[in-house]
Amino acid sequence: MNISPDTIIYWQWGPITLNATLVFTWVV
Questions:
Q1: φ, ψ dihedrals at 3, nearest 5°
Q2: Is the pLDDT of residue 22 over 70?
Q3: What is the reported pTM?
């Protein structure tokens, strides 16, 4: 499996974005 900078960024920000979405929808 190739590890590219884009992949690293995705794995760093993916869970954060997902959590932010869950929190946002829960608050609303």
A1: -105, 110
A2: yes
A3: 0.36
